[in-house]
Amino acid sequence: MTHWFDRSAAAEGEQTIADYMQKVVRAEAPEAPRLPDPAVLWVKAQLLKRWDAEQKAQAPLDLMEPVQVAAGLVTAVVLFAWSLPSLMRALALLRG
User: Fold this and answer.
1) How far is the C-alpha of 44 from the C-alpha of 56, rounded, in Å?
2) One-character DSSP codes across the chain
3) What is the pTM of this model?
4) The dihedral of CA 58, 64, 70, 73: what is its sign?
5) Domain that holds residue 87
6) 1 band by pLDDT with thresholds 50, 70 and 90
7) Distant-in-sequence contacts of 57-63, Cβ < 8 A, 24+ apart
8) Torsion over CA of 77, 81, 86 and 88, rounded to 10 degrees?
9) Contact between residue 9 and residue 3 where contact means Cβ atoms under 8 Å apart
10) Number of domains present in the structure of the chain
11) For residues 16 and 1, what is the distance between their CA atoms, to the nearest angstrom?
12) What pLDDT shows up at residue 5?
């Protein structure tokens, strides 16, 4: 069974703690993280501001692109249907 209050064990424990504390004192402190240069932060902020402005300007164009494709397809179908009688006549003339 362990003797919690043994005086000889306490002396050994104190020596162990003292040795550990000496190691802590001699250890080098970790280097603190460096803050970024203010000029770099300013440039990044300007780039983000420009990117945000480009996204806002591009949004309506991105919205209209599918509309333009659909309008083009509908126009092609209407033009084909409109010219179909002429195409049929031309095909009949070619056959003979």
Assistant:
1) 18
2) ---TT-HHHHHHHHHHHHHHHHHHHHSPPPPPPPPPPHHHHHHHHHHHHHHHHHHHHHHHHHHHHHHHHHHHHHHHHHHHHHHHHHHHHHHHHHH-
3) 0.44
4) negative
5) 53-96
6) very low
7) none
8) 100
9) yes
10) 1
11) 22
12) 58
Q: Which residues of 13-48 are buried (b: 16+ CB within 10 A; e: fewer)?
A: eeeeeeeeeeeeeeeeeeeeeeeeeeeeeeeeeeee
Is 10 a domain residue? no
> Residue 57 and residue 59: Cα distance in Å, rounded?
6
Q: Token pair 């043994």 is at which residue?
A: 6
Structural domain includes residue 27: no
